[in-house]
């Protein structure tokens, strides 16, 4: 078992500004453990990667700490004379000595040295939540007055026009008024 570490800048430096990831800030560095063994001509890599990010909650917009912990398992076959049909993949294989399938679990390698850095970056990117939440039951902001409902209560009327019952209730109210 091998332990490794990477500073926060390893992640930030790899992000292109066009991706709009300013919102995603690593808190401290990353740590991992990795075990590599050969099985015939194939390389088996497995281990765990952990880190922490500061993200914005999709509901209340608050900044919060999101831990990331990913276990990984990867099987790499020698690429031999095979050339990936995808131009990007072919370039990665030439540059990093590694080319991964879409599932990130199997791939090819070439040469004596494999750079797993890009693989780890991809792994972390995929582990980040699509809809970040500061907590599972975050109440979010009031759509009317914008108050953070985790902190304060507002007196805005709760009205959900999407609910047929709300419409029915309003109708009932009107009918009652008509009776009187
Ligand atoms: Zn929240
Ligand atoms: Zn409100």
Describe the structure.
By secondary structure, the chain is an alpha+beta fold. It has four helices and seven strands. It is elongated, with a radius of gyration of 25 Å. Strands 1, 2, 3, 4, 5, 6 and 7 form a seven-stranded mixed sheet that branches. The protein folds into two domains: 2-127, no CATH class; 139-180, no CATH class. Helices cover 24% and strands 31% of the residues. Strand 4 and strand 5 (63-78) form a beta hairpin. The protein has helices spanning 8-14, 87-96, 117-127, 164-179, and strands spanning 2-6, 25-26, 30-39, 42-56, 63-78, 98-100, 106-109. The longest helix is centred in the C-terminal third of the chain and has 16 residues, at 164-179. The termini are far apart. Residues 142, 144-145, 147, 154, 156 line the site of one zinc ion.
What attributes characterize this protein structure?
180 residues, alpha+beta, 2 domains, seven-stranded mixed beta sheet, 4 helices, 7 strands, elongated, binds zinc ion
Which molecules are bound besides the chains? zinc ion
Biggest β-sheet: count, sense, barrel? 7 strands, mixed
Query: What oligomeric assembly is this protein in?
Result: single chain
The low-confidence runs, each spanning 5 or more residues with pLDDT under 50, are none
Number of strands: 7
When the domains are counted, the total is 2
Gross morphology: elongated
Name the beta content range. 25-35%
* Count of individual helical segments: 4
Global structural class: alpha+beta
Cα distance, first to last residue?
A: 81 Å
Average pLDDT for all residues = 86
Helix amount, in percent?
10-25%
Topology as H/E string? EHEEEEHEEHH
Rg over CA atoms: 25 Å
């Amino acid at each position: 078992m091998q332990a490794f570490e990477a500073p926060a800048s390893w992640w930030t430096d790899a992000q292109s500004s066009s991706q709009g990831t300013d919102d995603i800030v690593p808190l401290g560095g990353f740590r991992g453990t990795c075990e590599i063994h050969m099985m015939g001509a194939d390389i088996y890599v497995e281990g765990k990667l952990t880190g922490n990010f500061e993200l914005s909650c999709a509901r209340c917009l608050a900044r919060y700490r999101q831990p990331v912990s990913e276990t990984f398992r990867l099987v790499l076959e020698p690429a031999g004379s095979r050339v990936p049909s995808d131009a990007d993949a072919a370039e990665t294989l030439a540059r990093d000595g590694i080319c991964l399938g879409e599932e990130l679990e199997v791939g090819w390698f070439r040469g004596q040295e494999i750079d797993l850095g890009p693989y780890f970056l991809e792994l972390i990117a995929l582990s980040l939540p699509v809809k970040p939440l500061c907590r599972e039951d975050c109440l979010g902001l009031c759509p009317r007055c914008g108050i953070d409902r985790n902190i304060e209560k507002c007196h805005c009327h709760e009205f959900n026009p999407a609910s047929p019952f709300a419409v029915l209730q309003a109708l009932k109210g009107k009918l009652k008024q008509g009776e009187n």
